[in-house]
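$ ./design --mode recover --in tokens.txt
reading tokens...
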């Protein structure tokens, strides 16, 4: 039990430390290290270690001689190896090559920066300018932080992944801040021209295809119901007219006793 625990601790330590890599490298290397702490006994060991949760099957470029399995409950891939034979004091290293999925696309960030600048500029003559400027400064700082941290070439694999997860939270905050800026722009009233709104590239989108088809079907159903109402109303009126025509004429009160007799 002690030997197995020692092996697991060693794995965890190496896996967490990782190795430095260029930010734009083709891939990220994860090392799984197995060692035999005994100086006299040959041992056989099993290894099972989780890959980062962002990794999918297509992101595993090289399994490094290990077997890969997916845990449905955890939603994570595991690298496994059974029956690893280790001589006394021997260490074996398995290196898994993963695609670097821990990078945010920087082009949308620069587009976002430009949109923020335009909106703030259009709000200069409004009461919302001070609030908009404060939001914008925070957004610029978040954008700069994302770009700086994900391009840091002197970090370990685990640090690179941690930066990505933090940056994803910053990206979500950027979206929220952008929505507030756009709201300020719209609520600024007549001081903001239509041209300024268009240049601000607001996130105003039409309904998606599913919603469009639902609207179409609702309109068709309404037209169908309206048509049915008109049809049955017309049928009722036509039937009433026919009944009146077919009815026998009323008897004359003077049939037996003509007037003047």
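writing sequence...
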């Amino acid at each position: 039990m002690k030997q197995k625990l020692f092996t697991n601790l060693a794995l965890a330590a190496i896996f967490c430390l990782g190795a430095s890599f260029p930010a734009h490298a083709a891939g990220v290397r994860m090392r799984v290290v197995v060692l035999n702490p005994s100086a006299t006994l040959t041992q056989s060991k099993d290894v099972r270690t989780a890959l980062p949760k962002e990794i999918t099957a297509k992101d595993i470029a090289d399994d490094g001689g290990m077997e890969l399995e997916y845990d449905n409950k955890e939603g994570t891939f595991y690298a496994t190896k059974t029956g690893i034979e280790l001589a006394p004091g021997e260490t074996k290293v398995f290196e898994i090559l993963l695609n670097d999925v821990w990078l945010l696309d920087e082009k949308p960030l620069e587009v976002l920066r430009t949109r923020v600048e335009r909106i703030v500029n259009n709000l200069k003559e409004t009461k919302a300018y001070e609030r908009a400027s404060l939001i914008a400064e925070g957004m610029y700082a978040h954008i700069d932080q994302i770009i700086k941290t994900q391009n840091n070439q002197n970090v370990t694999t685990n640090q690179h992944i941690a930066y990505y997860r933090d940056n994803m939270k910053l990206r979500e905050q950027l979206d929220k801040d952008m929505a507030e800026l756009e709201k300020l722009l719209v609520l600024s009233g007549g001081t903001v021209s239509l041209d300024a709104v268009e240049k601000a590239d607001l996130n105003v989108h039409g309904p998606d295809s599913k919603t469009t088809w639902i609207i179409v079907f609702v309109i068709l159903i309404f037209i169908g119901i309206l048509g049915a109402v008109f049809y049955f109303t017309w049928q009722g009126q036509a039937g009433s007219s026919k009944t009146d025509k077919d009815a026998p004429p009323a008897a004359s009160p003077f049939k037996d006793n003509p007037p003047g007799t």
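exit 0
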